[in-house]
Amino acid sequence: MLPPNYELLIGELSKKIDPKRLITNPLQLLAYGTDASFYRLIPKLVVQVHSEEEAVEVIRQTGRLNIPVTYRAAGTSLSGQAITDSVLMVATHHWKKYSILDDGLKIRLQPGITGSRANVFLVPYGRKIGPDPASINAAMIGGIASNNASGMCCGTSQNSYKTIADIRIVLYDGTILDTADNDSKQAFVQKHPEIIREIEKLRDDIKADSVLDERIRRKFKIKNTTGYSINALVDFEDPFEIIKHLMIGAEGTLAFISDLTYHTVVDEKYKACTLMIFDTIEKACEATPLLKESPVSAVELLDRDSIRSVENDPDAPAYFKELPETTCVLLVEIQANTKEEMDQKEAAIRKAVASIPTYQPYVFTSDPKEYNFNWKARKGLLSSVGGLRKTGTTCLIEDVAFPVPRLAEACLAIKDLFKRLEYTDAVLFGHALEGNLHLVFSQDFSTPVEVERYAKLMDDLSDIVVNQFDGSLKAEHGTGRNMAPFVEKEWGEAAYKIMLRIKNIFDPKKLINPGVIINENPKIHLENLKPLPEAHELVDKCMECGFCEPNCVSEGLTLSPRQRIVIAREISRLRAAGEDPDRLKKMLHDAQYFSNETCATDGLCALACPVKIDTGKFIKDLRHREASETAIDLAEYIGDHMPGITNIGRSGLNIVGFFQTVLGDTLMGGIADSMRFLTCNSVPKWNKYMPKGARKIKHTIANPGQENKVVYFPSCINRTMGKSKDYKKEDVELTRKTEELLQRAGFTIIYPEALNALCCGMAFISKGLKEEGARKSQELEDALYKASEGGKYPVLFDMSPCFYTFHEAYTNKDIKIYDPIEFMLDFVMPKLPVKNPREVVSVFPVCSVKKIGMEQNLYKLAKMCSHKVAMVESNCCGFAGDRGFTYPELNKHGQRHLAEQIPAGCKDGFSTSRTCEIGMTEHSDVNFKSIFYLIDEVTR
C-alpha cells in the first residue's frame, strides 16, 4: 500500500498525465530502482513525463504534498545520483527535440537525446559537442550536463561548464527560467527576487574572502565534480550566468533541466594515435606535462595491469605480453583538419618528449584496425576488469584527479593502497593531461568484512587525495551518494557552507533528489548497496550500466536488457532465500510479459554492452527451460512436417486474402480485432498488409547451362508469404523475383533437395526450442553442402535473419554462405549496370544486418540504385520474427519514430526481412519490401 500522500499525488497527476505512465507495479519499480552505480533504492512511484508541462505538474504536486522527487534520464550515473525511494521522474522518450543554431556553432537539445546522437546532428557542420564521456552512446544530455561529464578529449576546456550557452530549467515551485529569453529572465526577477539577491550575496561573500576565492580558483584548475560548481561564483558577475553554470554538475539537486544549448566545438577531419611505452610510470608522468604543452588532443595513461587485462585480445600486438612489469603506456591522440597540420603536430609532439626515452620506438597510426584497437583497449578497460570479476562481486570505478606535476607520486600511492588492502585485480588508467585517474576493481559487498574493507579503502583514498595531494575526490563521475560524506573533507568548512546555501536557495524544502551531494550521514556511501546474486551465467557479469538500453526495442514499453537482468537477479535471490513466496509468485507472473514475452531477443544489446552480454540469448534460454513437453513435441512435429505446414500457411494466407478482398480493409480489420479480443489475443493480429500465399517452388534447378552457378535457399517465410496488397500489380513474389534477378545476372540457380522441408531453425530457436532449431539447422547444412558440391558454389539466403541464424549455427566452413546484401554487391551488381536510378529511397537495416556489420554495405548497395538514400535510424523493428503478430505493441513501439524519418516524396522502402517489412509498412504507410525489387527495377 502506498502512503496516503502518494495516493493523492497519483490522483492529481492522472488528471494531466496518462495513468499508464504513472508506474506503481512492483516489478517495474524494482527495474527502475537501479543506475550504473552499486547502490539500489526502489521508488514508490515512477512517472514517465513526455513534456515540460508534465514535468512542471509533477514538480508542483510533489512540492505541494512534500514528497521528494528525483529527475533522471538514462541512468548511466556511477555514484548513485539517479535513484530514489520516493518519486522518480524519467525524462527520456519524447524528449528528443533539437535545433541547430548559428550554422552549427550552437545546438539546442532536450535532455533525452544521447550525446552520440547530438554529434550525429552536427556532422554536416563539421562540429560536435564538447563533452565526450566513454558512455556517450548511452548517456543523455540531461545527465551529461547534470554530472558535468567530460571524457577523453574534452578535458576542462570543452566540458559542459565551459561550453554551455544557455539553459532552460524548472525550479522547485514550477517556475521556468530560460536564460536565452530576456522576457523569461525579467519574469524570473519579478517572481523570485530573493534567489537573485542570494546569488549576488554568495558571489560577493566569496569575493570578500580572498582565501576562499583563491582556493576555489585553484581547485578548479584540475577536473573537479565534488560538490557544486562553486567556481561559477568566482568566474561570473551576472547572476543568470552564475545560475546557468551552477546547474552544471548539480546532479539534478537544484532544478530540472528541460533543455540546454551548447556552444559546439570543431570535429577534426583527421585523427591518429600512438602508444608511447615508458620504462616506468614515473617516466610516463614526467612526459605528461611536456605533452600538455604540445598540440595533442588526448593523452591516456594505462598502467601495466591495464595492458595485461587486454593483452589476450585477438587484435592486441604480441609485444604486450612481453612488456616488463614496470612499464606504463601513454595513448596519445592527434587531430587536425589537414594532413599537413597532422604532420606538423606529430613533429611538435616528438620534439616535446624527445628528452624522455621510450621503451621502444612509437608510430602514429590512422590505420582503422590499429587505431580502433588502441582506443578499444583504453575504452574497454572497465569491461576487461568487469568481465573477469567473480560472480556476485561488483565492478567499481573510482574517479580522482591530482595536480599533473604530482601525478607519478599519486599513481604510486594509489597502487600501494591497492596492494596493502589486497585489491589484486585493480587497474589504474585515466586522462593524464588532466591528472585524472580511474581506479577499476571488483568488490564483494556480501559480508560485513568486505564492506568494512571497502570503507577502509574509501577512507584511505580520501586521505591520499585530499591530505597528501589536495586533489579531487571526483573528477568527472559526480559526487552522488558515493562521495557525499567526503565533500566537506575535500573542500573545507567555508566552501562547504557555500554549498549548503546553494542547496537552500534552490531547494528550500529539501525535496529535490535528497541525499545526493549534500548528505549528513557519514556512512551513506556504505548503505543501500545493490545485491548481485547469481542468476545465470549469460548475465552474471552485468554491471547494470545501461549502455544496452539505446539498442533495445522494448525499452520504454516494458523492460530494457539491464532491467531484465535486475528482475532475474531478484527472482534468483527470492528463490534462494525462500522469503516472501507471494512476492516471488507475483514477480514470476509479471515477468512473463514484461521480461519474456516482449523481448525481441535480437541480441543488439550485446553490441553496446561493455562485457558483451546478449540478454536475448538469456531470454531464449529462459524460454527453453520453461518449454512444456507439449511445446517440444509440437516443435518436433512441425519440424518433421515442414512441407505440409508451409502448404497450410499458404492456404491460410490465401483464404484471409480472399476475405480481405471481399470485405475490404475496414470490415476485415474489425472482424479480426474482435476475434483477437474474444480469444484473449491468442489469434494473431491482422493488418491490411498481410500477404497472400506464395507459389510453391517445384523445380530444383533454373536457368541451366550458365557458367556461373549459385545455390539459392529461399527462407520458409518467403516460401509461404507472397505479395501484399501494397505491392505493385506487376510485382511477383520474392522467390520468383530472386529467380528473375539471378537469371538476368547470368546464374544457373540450384535449389537444395527437399527444399520445402528445410528451415534455418530460427522460428524454433527464438521460442526456446533449441533442440529442434539445431536439428533443422543441421539438416539445412547437410543439404547446402550437397547442393553446393562441397562448397564449390556460393549459397544465397534471401533474408538476413535466416542468414544470421545459420551463420551462428553451421560448422562446415567449406560452405560459402552469403547474406542478400553481400551477394548482390559481390556477384550481381557487377553484372547488372544501373540504368534508371531512383531519386530517393528509404532503407532499414534489420537487427541481423547490424550484428554482421553489413549496415554500410546496405547503404552502399542502395546508393548504387538511388541518388538519395535515407537510412532509417532505429534498432530492431520489433517484429521479432512473428512477434509482431502476437505482441503487436512491441512492433508499434519500435516503429514509433519510423514515419517521421521517411523523406518527403519517398513512397518505397527496402530491407532484407519479409516479416519486418510488413511491420514497417504498417507503421509508415510506405511500401517496404526486399531490396531485390529495387535492384531489379533500376537495372532493367
Automatic annotation (TrEMBL):
<keyword id="KW-0809">Transit peptide</keyword>
<dbReference type="InterPro" id="IPR004017">
    <property type="entry name" value="Cys_rich_dom"/>
</dbReference>
<dbReference type="Pfam" id="PF02754">
    <property type="entry name" value="CCG"/>
</dbReference>
<comment type="similarity">
    <text>Belongs to the FAD-binding oxidoreductase/transferase type 4 family.</text>
</comment>
<feature type="domain" description="FAD-binding PCMH-type">
    <location>
        <begin position="39"/>
        <end position="267"/>
    </location>
</feature>
<dbReference type="InterPro" id="IPR016169">
    <property type="entry name" value="FAD-bd_PCMH_sub2"/>
</dbReference>
<keyword id="KW-0560">Oxidoreductase</keyword>
<dbReference type="GO" id="GO:0071949">
    <property type="term" value="F:FAD binding"/>
</dbReference>
<dbReference type="Pfam" id="PF01565">
    <property type="entry name" value="FAD_binding_4"/>
</dbReference>
<dbReference type="InterPro" id="IPR016164">
    <property type="entry name" value="FAD-linked_Oxase-like_C"/>
</dbReference>
<dbReference type="Pfam" id="PF02913">
    <property type="entry name" value="FAD-oxidase_C"/>
</dbReference>
<keyword id="KW-0285">Flavoprotein</keyword>
<dbReference type="GO" id="GO:0004458">
    <property type="term" value="F:D-lactate dehydrogenase (cytochrome) activity"/>
</dbReference>
<dbReference type="InterPro" id="IPR009051">
    <property type="entry name" value="Helical_ferredxn"/>
</dbReference>
<dbReference type="InterPro" id="IPR036318">
    <property type="entry name" value="FAD-bd_PCMH-like_sf"/>
</dbReference>
<dbReference type="InterPro" id="IPR016166">
    <property type="entry name" value="FAD-bd_PCMH"/>
</dbReference>
<dbReference type="InterPro" id="IPR004113">
    <property type="entry name" value="FAD-bd_oxidored_4_C"/>
</dbReference>
<dbReference type="InterPro" id="IPR016167">
    <property type="entry name" value="FAD-bd_PCMH_sub1"/>
</dbReference>
<keyword id="KW-0274">FAD</keyword>
<dbReference type="Pfam" id="PF13183">
    <property type="entry name" value="Fer4_8"/>
</dbReference>
<dbReference type="InterPro" id="IPR016171">
    <property type="entry name" value="Vanillyl_alc_oxidase_C-sub2"/>
</dbReference>
<protein>
    <recommendedName>
        <fullName>D-lactate dehydrogenase (cytochrome)</fullName>
        <ecNumber>1.1.2.4</ecNumber>
    </recommendedName>
</protein>
<feature type="domain" description="4Fe-4S ferredoxin-type">
    <location>
        <begin position="531"/>
        <end position="562"/>
    </location>
</feature>
<dbReference type="InterPro" id="IPR017896">
    <property type="entry name" value="4Fe4S_Fe-S-bd"/>
</dbReference>
<dbReference type="InterPro" id="IPR006094">
    <property type="entry name" value="Oxid_FAD_bind_N"/>
</dbReference>
<dbReference type="GO" id="GO:0008720">
    <property type="term" value="F:D-lactate dehydrogenase (NAD+) activity"/>
</dbReference>
<dbReference type="GO" id="GO:0051536">
    <property type="term" value="F:iron-sulfur cluster binding"/>
</dbReference>
<dbReference type="GO" id="GO:1903457">
    <property type="term" value="P:lactate catabolic process"/>
</dbReference>
